């Protein structure tokens, strides 16, 4: 039996035994957003389960965690929109009060060229941009979750008055689904703390597309609450 699957920018054909029972699970087709600016503003006006920026006290500093190159998050599209909204919500805010932290997690930290690809100078608008290094970055220790995983986070992110995340949501082999606080709680966390969280993957509920009772996902969410992340901008890929 021949089965063709999408892989990267192309297709891969697999040969599978005729004895195997094969099911292909395809994502639902949803309309592509035609006007991203308008959709972004609408979402920011009424965020799910939280308050809009305008209802929060003006911060003295802001940190925005963004994905590295291993994720399909359209940072180049979303970051300028978020910055525009921040400057509108807080008229006295200046670019030097904003730090963009590229969350590498356990991936090798981006070099200067990679950082510019993720966050070009043209869209950073004078903001400070740093790349998280899970081994060498200076950290802030928030203690531990109820599952005894350390919450040790990049100091540049932790020190900000207002902490925000830009990321994407997709199925994950043991988190269930990515998104939410994961962009900072894993992306901007120390190596040992990430490994402690990932050690929870051996629980039977830690599997793809499940968040109910999933200890890895629940631990991430608890750590996010400890840090204090009032707003996350998440997007979802379509089938293409």
Task: Give an overview of the whole structure.
There is one protein chain. With 240 residues, the chain is of the alpha/beta class. It has a single domain (33-236), classed as Rossmann fold (3-Layer(aba) Sandwich), CATH 3.40.50. The chain contains 8 helices and 11 strands. Strands 5-4-3-8-11 form a 5-stranded parallel sheet. β1 (2-7) and β2 form a beta hairpin. The protein starts with a strand and ends with a strand.
Secondary-structure blueprint:
Layout: E1 2-7, E2 10-15, H1 36-45, E3 62-67, H2 75-89, E4 98-103, H3 112-118, H4 121-124, E5 128-131, E6 139-144, E7 150-154, H5 155-158, E8 162-169, E9 171-172, E10 176-177, H6 182-185, H7 191-198, H8 215-227, E11 231-236
Parallel strand pairs: 3-4, 3-8, 4-5, 8-11
Antiparallel strand pairs: 1-2, 6-7, 9-10
Helix content: 25-40%
Global geometry: globular
What is the CATH superfamily?
A: LarA, N-terminal domain
> What is the CA-based Rg, rounded?
19 Å
Distance between the termini: 24 Å
Q: Can you give the mean pLDDT?
A: 94
Strand content: 15-25%
Largest sheet: 5 strands, parallel
Number of domains: 1
Helix count from the secondary structure assignment: 8
CATH architecture annotation name: 3-Layer(aba) Sandwich
Question: Which stretches are poorly predicted, pLDDT < 50 over at least 5 residues?
Answer: none
What structural class results from the helix and strand content? Answer: alpha/beta
């Amino acid at each position: 039996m021949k089965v063709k699957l999408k892989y990267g920018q192309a297709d891969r054909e697999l040969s599978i035994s005729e004895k195997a029972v094969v099911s292909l699970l395809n994502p639902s087709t949803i309309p592509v957003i035609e006007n991203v600016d308008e959709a972004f503003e609408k979402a920011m006006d009424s965020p799910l389960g939280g308050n809009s920026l305008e209802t929060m006290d003006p911060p003295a500093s802001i940190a925005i965690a963004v994905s590295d190159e291993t994720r399909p998050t359209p940072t180049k599209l979303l970051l300028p929109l978020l910055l525009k909204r921040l400057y509108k919500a807080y008229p006295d805010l200046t670019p030097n009060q904003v730090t963009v932290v590229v969350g590498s997690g356990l991936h090798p930290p981006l070099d200067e060229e990679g950082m510019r690809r993720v966050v070009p100078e043209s869209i950073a608008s004078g903001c400070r941009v740093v790349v998280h290094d899970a081994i060498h970055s200076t950290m802030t220790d928030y203690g531990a979750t109820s599952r005894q995983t350390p919450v040790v986070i990049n100091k540049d992110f932790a020190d900000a008055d207002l902490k925000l995340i830009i990321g994407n949501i997709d199925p994950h082999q043991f988190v269930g689904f990515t998104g939410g606080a994961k962009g900072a709680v894993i992306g901007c966390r120390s190596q040992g703390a990430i490994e402690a969280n990932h050690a929870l993957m051996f629980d039977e509920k830690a599997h793809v597309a499940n968040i109910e009772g999933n200890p890895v996902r629940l631990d991430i969410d608890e750590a996010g609450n400890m840090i204090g992340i009032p707003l996350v901008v998440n997007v979802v890929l379509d089938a293409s």
